[in-house]
Amino acid sequence: MQNKAIVHVIEDDDAVRDSLAFLLMSAGIEAQTHESAAVFLGRFSQASIGCIVTDIRMPEISGIDLLKRVKELDPALPVIVITGHGDVPLAVEAMKLGAADFFEKPFDDDTLIAAIRVALDRNRNRDQEEAKIAELRTRIASLSTREREVLEGLVAGNPNKTIAYDLGISHRTVEVYRANVMTKMRAATLSDLVRMALLTGSLPESP
User: Fold this and answer.
1) What pLDDT band is residue 48 in, cutting at 50, 70 and 90?
2) Whole-prediction pTM value?
3) Domains and CATH numbers, the chain
4) Do the beta carbons of residue 94 and residue 71 sit within 8 Å?
5) Strand order, beta sheet including 101-104
6) Which residues contact 196 (CB under 8 A, 6 or more apart)?
7) Of the candidates 50, 49, 62, 118, the residue with the CA atom closest to the CA atom of residue 93
């Protein structure tokens, strides 16, 4: 699970960078500032990521190049770009590369804050989903080898009789293992169990 979401402000203009940080903190949003894309990438840590707000035009590594790098590091990480007047073509390019939103200077403070909150909520939901998947993987790891084999049979859509034949065990034994699997995975129904297994990506899907 990630730590508290932080908005990373990447802007080479000191005054604009400080102004953005003050705006975010005034809105109760935690912010960290970085004077360049290179500095941010050197500090990059998924444990402290929530959202990125970056200028599109910066020396060394531009906002476009930063967006490309970020999408390689974490494709789902929201990036909001800020453009200067007349930089709409760059903003369009950024959106095509996966930017969450763009704002042209001078931008409306409330509109920017609203967009950042949407991006943070999206990322927070992703954190919750990742935590759920991690918990499901822990449950799968708690299964014995035979229980996992029965689970794989169930995910493949096989009835107990077929699973018993494939594993060389009795139908009754499969029922016992199946009940154990349902209990350990905390699944109420077979469909719940199959959905849990497929969500983790650790078992083969039905052909």
Assistant:
1) low
2) 0.64
3) 7-131 (3.40.50.2300), 142-200 (1.10.10.10)
4) no
5) 31-34, 7-10, 51-55, 79-83, 101-104
6) 136, 139, 185, 187
7) 62
